[in-house]
C-alpha cells in the first residue's frame, strides 16, 4: 500500500501531540506520509543516528538492546498511539535499541529538528516529555530495587502489561523469552513462575499470550 498523508485527528490522539493547535496538527499531517508496517518489520535500528522520532498511529511495537557481552534486554511493549524514541533523540548520538513492529500498524517519522521545534514552541509538549522522562527514571529505580520471588515479579509485570494493553489479554510477541529479557530472569524461571500462577487459576497461558483471569489475585507491588 503506498504511503499517504496522516489525518490531523489521528495525530491529536497521540499524547505528545494532543495539545497542539488544530492548525499545527493539520500542518504536520499534510507534511508527513504514513507508512504501513508488517508484523516483524524493523522500525528503528540500534546504533543508527538518533535523528528521528517514530509516531506509531496504530499497532504495537517492541524493542530490544543487544549488549557487548552477548546479553539482551527488552523494553516494555508499546501500544499506539505513542511516540518513540524521545529520550534517545534528546540524549543522542545513536539509538540504544531496535524497535520492531509486534503487530501490523502505521507510523510516520518526525525529525529531531521538528521535535526540538515543538519543544521550544509548546509548553504542553515540554511537560509531556518531562513526565515521560520522570516515569522512565522511576521505572529504572524500581527495576534496580526489585526483589522477591520470581512469581511475584512476573505477576507484577503482568499487571503493568495488562494496563498498557488496556485489557486482560497480554500479547507476548517475543514469547516468554521477552518477559525474561525485560525482567533479567532466565526463560526457565519465567516459565516456572507462569506455570505456578496458572496453577492458582489467576492466568491462562496461550501461545504468545497470557490471559489474566483474576487481576486481584496477581497481588501487584505498590509501584
Describe the structure.
By secondary structure, the chain is α+β, with helices and mostly antiparallel strands. It has two domains: about 5-145, Jelly Rolls (Sandwich); about 145-215, Winged helix-like DNA-binding domain superfamily/Winged helix DNA-binding domain (Arc Repressor Mutant, subunit A). Helix content is about 40%, strand content about 25%. It has helices at about 10, 20-30, 85-90, 110-120, 125-145, 150-165, 175-185, 185-200; strands at about 5, 35, 40-45, 50-60, 60-65, 70-75, 80, 80-85, 100, 105-110, 170, 205, 210. Strands 1-2-10-4-8 form a five-stranded antiparallel sheet. Strands 3, 5, 6, 7 and 9 form a five-stranded antiparallel sheet that branches. Helix 4 (about 110-120) packs across helix 5 (about 125-145), helix 6 (about 150-165) crosses helix 8 (about 185-200) and helix 7 (about 175-185) crosses helix 8. The relative contact order is 0.14.
Amino acid at each position: 500500500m503506498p504511503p499517504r498523508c496522516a489525518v490531523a485527528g489521528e495525530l491529536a490522539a497521540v499524547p505528545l501531540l494532543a495539545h497542539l493547535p488544530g492548525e499545527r496538527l493539520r500542518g504536520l499531517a499534510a507534511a508527513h506520509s504514513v507508512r504501513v508496517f508488517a508484523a516483524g518489520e524493523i522500525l528503528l535500528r540500534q546504533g543508527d543516528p538518533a535523528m528521528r522520532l517514530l509516531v506509531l498511529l496504530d499497532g504495537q511495537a517492541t524493542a530490544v538492546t543487544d549488549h557487548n557481552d552477548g546479553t539482551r534486554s527488552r523494553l516494555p511493549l508499546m501500544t499506539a498511539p505513542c511516540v518513540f524514541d524521545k529520550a534517545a533523540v534528546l540524549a543522542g548520538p545513536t539509538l540504544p535499541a531496535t524497535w520492531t513492529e509486534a503487530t501490523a500498524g502505521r507510523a510516520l517519522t518526525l525529525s529531531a529538528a521538528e521535535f526540538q521545534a515543538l519543544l521550544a514552541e509548546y509548553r504542553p509538549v515540554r511537560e509531556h516529555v518531562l513526565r515521560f522522562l520522570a516515569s522512565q527514571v522511576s521505572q529504572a529505580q524500581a527495576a534496580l530495587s526489585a526483589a522477591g520471588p520470581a512469581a511475584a515479579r512476573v505477576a507484577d509485570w503482568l499487571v503493568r502489561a495488562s494496563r498498557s494493553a488496556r485489557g486482560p489479554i497480554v500479547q507476548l510477541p517475543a514469547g516468554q523469552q521477552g518477559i525474561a529479557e525485560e525482567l533479567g530472569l532466565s526463560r526457565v524461571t519465567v516459565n516456572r513462575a507462569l506455570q505456578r500462577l496458572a496453577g492458582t487459576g489467576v492466568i491462562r497461558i496461550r501461545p504468545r499470550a497470557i490471559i489474566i483471569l483474576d487481576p486481584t489475585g496477581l497481588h501487584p507491588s505498590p509501584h
